[in-house]
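Supplementary Methods. Inverse-folding protocol.

Structures were first reduced to a discrete structure-token string of length 37. This string, shown here, constituted the complete conditioning input.
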């Protein structure tokens, strides 16, 4: 169970900064550029 928790924490720590960067960059301009489609 420890490995599963570690993986969850890793995913959280990777997603959190990415989300913060997107919000800080500005949704109106960065949102369109971030999307691959």
């Amino acid at each position: 169970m420890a490995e599963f928790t570690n993986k969850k924490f890793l995913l959280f720590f990777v997603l959190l900064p990415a989300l913060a960067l997107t919000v800080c960059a500005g949704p109106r301009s960065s949102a369109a550029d971030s999307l691959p489609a």
